[in-house]
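If you are new to this repository, start here. Below is one unmodified record pulled from the training split, so you can see the exact layout before writing a loader.
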Amino acid sequence: MAGGIDVHELVEQALAAAQAAGADYVDARLVRKQRQSVAMKNGSVEELLSNEDSGVGVRVIAGGAWGFAATSLATVADIRRAAKEAVEIAQASAKTTREPVVLAPVEPAVAEVASWATIDPFTVPLAEKIDFLRACDAAMDQEGVVVRESLTMCSREEKWFASSEGADIYQDRVVTQGEVAATAAGPGEVQRRSYPNSHGGEIQARGWEIIGPQDFVGNAKIVAAEAAQLVNADKCPEGYMDIILGGPQLALQVHESCGHPIELDRVLGMEASFAGTSFLTPDTLGARYGSPQISIVADATIPGALGAFDYDDEGVPGQRADIIREGIFCSYLTSRETAGKVGMTANGTMRSDGWNRAPLIRMTCINLLAGEAGSLEELIRDTDEGLLMMVNKSWSIDDRRLNFQFACEAGYRIKGGQIVGLVKNPAYQGITPEFWQSCDAVCSQSEWRVWGLPNCGKGEPQQVMEVAHGVAPARFRQVLVGMGQ
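And here is the target side for that same chain:
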């Protein structure tokens, strides 16, 4: 991209040009992205995709207002032009700004960060990846299964960040993904089961080493068999009953009803596109959010987790912050700009999905901490009657993140502390604080794991972000359930 010019020089040119044009603060990100995906459907390769992208984004404060501009062209003249344009945008915005931007202090970092990958997925031959998918496809070739899908994806992002405060950070990030899904059909009925989940499969900020331990072939056989069984399974019962949410489903529940409402830009009315605002207004700090079993943290420090990183796109270190402590709401996800508005410090959650987008407050790893309920098997034995629900199928939630409904791929009927059969199209609904206050048990650390979610949308124009959620299965008492779609 750089045409023989050192990338640090390109970033420094952006800083110098913006300051010369009148910026009070400048940061610049040079980003290179590479992505490869291979998808198979019913035994045939359906997609072979490989692309690369690169550019520089310049963000400034001038006259107390933000300005942002970007360029995919990598000459010094192009970058200086973008920097000047960012300042002009800020100066124009300053004419209508009601209060100037004030950034919370941060110690400027100088760092080089390597990826967590052990086996670079880009070095794995394409033929090996296709053979992996063929093995998964063959395992799903069972009676009643009409569509077999499998996928592997890998990406690399290199990012250089520098600021007029003295930050100089390079980060290398590799992501690897694998997923299988089987769709079965019968008279008037279609059912789909996926592994490990329906919102990204197995995806981590690691290399090809994550693929083997997941036993995709063995689990492909299981989901294909269950998809066929669901076609003729009983309907989900209706009414109020106890439910247990398995890991993948609980991760999405945390994402939608805990992660989005704690984004402080939504709370302050600075961002409302795509996912709405939030019911967690500043006056709710210190209020009860969930039962004493509910403790949630935002943690960007978990090696290999999809929502983890060393530095965000403001140069703030990734960190762990308490969000809900034993059911009490205590903090938000903050930027350098928003933190001071509620008397907090910046906790490193500003990220952009590319060089041509300004960063927004985004989730990191929003984790429900493990409890003391033992294993999933023990929790089932402790449940007299209810439903275990696994893997999301569809959902809806209002624009304040209060009223929600989730439908799952599979439900397992529990009676007398035992699973007695499958039910199809299970769904549940609730109101966020009431739902989390109904939780009376969270499984122990042995059941806890981090689930990656690669497609969290926010902003206008929309940005798609990689986040993650660590959970252990949990039980919720007397939740309204019924048939989903």
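Two things worth knowing about this chain: The longest strand covers residues 44-62. The CA atoms of residues 67 and 90 lie 4 Å apart.
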